[in-house]
Amino acid sequence: MAASFTRPVFIIASPRSGSTLLYETLAKHPELVSLQGESHAVIEHIPALSTVARGLHSNSLGKDDATDDIRCTLTSRFLASAKNADGSPYQGDREGVRFLEKTPKNALRVPFLHALYPDALFVYLVRQPVPNISSIIDAWHSGKFVTYPQLPGWQGPWSLLLPPDWQKLSGGAVAETAAFQWKQANLQAIAAFENLPQSQVLSVNYDDLCRTPGQLVNRICDFIDVSSSAIDVSKLPLSRYTLSAPSETKWHRHAPALENAITGVEDIAEKINVFLERDKASAIAIEPELHRVAETMRSQTRHATENQRPSTGSPQRNAPCPCGSGKRYKQCHGKLS
Questions:
Q1: End of a domain among 278, 308, 325?
Q2: From the centroid of its chain, how far is CA 252?
Q3: CATH of the domain at 234
Q4: Same domain, 220 and 304
Q5: What would you measure as the largest C-alpha separation in the chain, in angstroms?
Q6: 214 Cβ partners below 8 Å, 6+ apart?
Q7: 220, 295 Cβ separation under 8 angstroms
Q8: Most buried by CB count within 10 Å: which residue of 219, 239, 254, 317?
Q9: Measuring CA to CA, which residue among 261, 295, 117, 263 is closest to residue 178?
């Protein structure tokens, strides 16, 4: 099998930004092949690219890591695991095959990917900061996205991508770590895109994918130069990594924690909007209702605690936690008592 492909397409995004939904939608295109999953093992099982072997500093990779040997090895591994749109294994029966890839860690690897594949195309997907960071918090709490069960210098397992300078977060709140992951994924992607030809980067907003999926998918298909009529987007399904049903107010339960963790997010949002405006995509902004919702949630928690507290001064250990988390008191705020 010839280890080559033409103009590979990489979806670059923060974790929990809707990239799986976009990836699974585009992977149905008959002109594209993909892993139909993420490339963690495909990339990091190459010893020179292993995050563990490199000292667990971060998931970042740079242009100096893109040697000829790495290009040959990684391309062969991609194609050996690639599948056609119908799920059948790619047999190397097409020249100049178009490869589609999505792994959130790649937000830290754009210079590496561009050095490997100078003709690569990048679809930069962004989501409103508050719901995105809230979803990252949910991912941490779920325990379903653990990437490093034992990370030296960190208490407990680590979830999702590992950005540079993660060590300074040790002992902090989950919301702070989630916000840091969002910031670093977008900052590093933007810094890399500024050094790429504009013709190789298309910025899109997750809200546009949800509200006008047909229009957005058509724009992406035009950008990556495949037929836009080959994908049915009349109804977008939930992605495989969805934790709970989508809701515009789902982030409310994390509002107090988010309020304390979003320092600096607005500055990054402004940088992102430069790219979105360039590609005529909807802008993003800090949720204007965040502070009001945060105070409402704090008030509701205080009220629930006061109403449910027994004469002993605290809820029963096995009773539902009055904060509304759905956990038992002993598993939630009872830990803080």
A1: 278
A2: 20
A3: 3.40.50.300
A4: no
A5: 75
A6: 233, 234
A7: no
A8: 254
A9: 261
Phi/psi for 83 (5° steps) reads -130, 150
Total number of domains constituting the chain:
2
Closest CA to 108 of 141, 61, 172, 55: 61
Helix runs in 94-173, H state only: 110-116, 129-142
Q: Which of 143, 157, 175 is nearest to 262 (CA)?
A: 175
Chain segment 9-68, per-residue pLDDT in tens: 999 999 999 999 999 999 999 999 999 999 999 999 999 999 999 999 999 999 999 999
Q: Is the dihedral of CA 254, 255, 257, 263 positive or negative?
A: positive
Find the mean pLDDT for residues 193-203: 97
How far apart CA 104 and CA 9 sit, in angstroms, is 14
Show the tokens assigned to 161.
């991508």
Quote the tokens at residue 95.
């020249």
In a domain, 2, yes or no: no
* Contact predicate 26/231, CB 8 Å: yes
User: pTM for the whole thing?
Assistant: 0.87
Residue where a domain stops, chosen among 236, 253, 278: 278
> Residue 165, exposed/middle/buried by CB under 10 A (0-12, 13-18, 19+)?
exposed
